[in-house]
Fold this sequence. Notes:
It is built from 18 helices and 23 strands. By secondary structure, it is α+β, with helices and mostly antiparallel strands.
Amino acid sequence: MLAEIKGLNEECGVFGIWGHSDAAKITYYGLHSLQHRGQEGAGIVVSDNGHLQVVKGEGLVTEVFNEGKIEKLNGQSAIGHVRYATAGGGGIENVQPLLFHSQNGSLALAHNGNIVNANALKHQLEAQGSIFQTSSDTEVLAHLIKRSGFQSLKDQLKNALTMLKGAYAFLLMTETELMVALDPNGLRPLSIGQLGDAYCVASETCAFDIIGAEFVRDVMPGELIVINDSGLHSEPFTYSTSSAICTMEYVYFSRPDSNIHGINVHTARKSMGKQLAIEAQIEADVVTGVPDSSISAAIGYAELAGIPYEMGLIKNRYVGRTFIQPSQELREQGVKMKLAPVRRVVEGKRVVMVDDSIVRGTTSRRIVTMLREAGATEVHVCISSPPMKNPCFYGIDTSTHEELIASKHSVEEIREMIGADSLTFLSVEGMLKAIGRPDEGNQCGQCLACFTGNYPTEIYPDTVLPHEKELVR
């Protein structure tokens, strides 16, 4: 579903490249392909003859950068970032990459994820004299590195990473090397590619396709990779690892043309749609999906059910961000600016509306209402994931049970609230089977916390609101 409407957003996307004469330009295109992962800010840091320089700003990649700005970013190495603010809030000071200068050189940081013990570490660091320049949890790593007693930056980084809990995919660049680190659970996707003699790193493999790079491999949980002029070097920073990739990357966040751990996202979503059709068993005349992330699942549903797939909902591609705050009445109708039903497709029809998830339920209710107003005789809502009953603390902006309709209402109650004739959620087992990673002895290699409440890491008390603590295991 449309992230702007639904209120389900992922924190950010990262891209880096080492050893290419057009590093800034390549990074710009890489970030553009990752724009869906964050629309609030973008930045690029380039290493130019031993000097790190940064350009960043609030807004979309195309708003922050123009040809003139890119031309000024000379250098053969760069890291970039697109941001959606979940931890630390907005503001230009929180736009990444963060750039730090010291007597020993400069350091640039870009981060995807959320560090669940960031507040505890900040309190500890401030008690030791650290002064934070941002409210971003990313800055914690820089302070931990500088306070490490080890001599080499690599050892300082390894020591600092072991203190972090949660989800993190870090890109760290100095004048002489690019370092890449993924948390011990591998909660966020991160891949290595190669463009000629240059190595590149991206949150999603779709970025490699855009720039013409060849996919090399995924970064492994607990792995530290160092890229410099002598090549790529890898070693673990911890041996205590347990793969738990975020399942919502397959369901919603990642682009359909990306591959995560060898599984194509479009193929996985299409299979989820097929499995959903098996579990739902609904008689209908037409199947439609909510653009854009639900289209693959809707196609799969229609294919297996033998019901025609039609474009019953159209997304307005020209609705951008607005700085004019609407009235409550207009805000309630805001979904109509982004989605519109196709009357000739749904009028007089029994419609299966496939969506990837239900968060608060308000958008689902409005879409069901729109379809009925367009003449649909029945509207059956089918969700290609299980009910989201639990908050996420790893970089998705659902941090309380109060934000999740499924945490306090049954499926039947939700059906009544959104006004659907029927409501079907895909089962956890069916979802894992469709993705291609079935749960064998609870070792599926995926994080299912938002569905099951079983978190792969410890959740620190100051991460959870007081009235939520008894609900989080």
